[in-house]
Amino acid sequence: MIQTQTIVKITDNTGAKVGRVFKILGGSKKRYAEIGEMVVLSVQTAEPRKAVKKKDVVYGVIVRQRKPFRRADGSYVSFDDNAVVLVDKVKKEPRANRVFGPIPRELAVHYQKIVNLAPEVV
Q1: For residue 19, with 0-12 CB atoms within 10 Å meaning exposed, 13-18 middle and 19 or more buried, which class applies?
Q2: Under a CB-based contact definition with an 8 Å cutoff, are residues 6 and 31 in contact?
Q3: Domain ranges for the chain
Q4: Which of 5, 108, 109, 110 has a CA between 20 and 30 Å from the CA of residue 94?
């Protein structure tokens, strides 16, 4: 459950490290975002001499959340952190060429490229 003002880890190699969510896409009154939903965030910390700088406004897909989410088989999955992968606004493809950490298999429906870049699919 990600809401506005949530601090998230950016888990790809674009250069951004930490971001703050300030808009959840999908409706004017949408309050929370779950895994697989797009958010707009501001980069809070970034590595020097990389593509993404501090204070940049970027789009991202939530790939991990601390709140347990239910799968169709009845099991629950949760992660240790809230994490986002930066994506292109129009094409919805990842901006990076590497993704760090585990990714849930529910992302394969809409974001197959992110799943292909991930080292581990849970």
Answers
A1: buried
A2: no
A3: 7-121
A4: 5
Residue whose structure tokens are 């593509």: 51
- Helix-strand-coil split of the chain, %, nearest 5: 10, 40, 50
Give the span between the Cα atoms of 69 and 78, in whole angstroms.
6
On whether the pTM is more than 0.90, the answer is: yes
Tokens at residue 82, please? 């809230």
* Distance (Å, whole) CA 96 – CA 115: 13
d(CA 17, CA 52): 10
DSSP-derived pairing of the beta strands 57-64 and 69-70: unpaired
Q: What architecture does CATH give domain 7-121?
A: Beta Barrel (2.40)
Q: Predicted confidence band at 91 (pLDDT cuts at 50, 70, 90)?
A: very high
Q: What is the C-alpha separation between 120 and 31, in angstroms, rounded?
A: 30
Spatial CA neighbour of 58 closest among 100, 115, 8 = 8
- Residue 29 amino acid letter: K
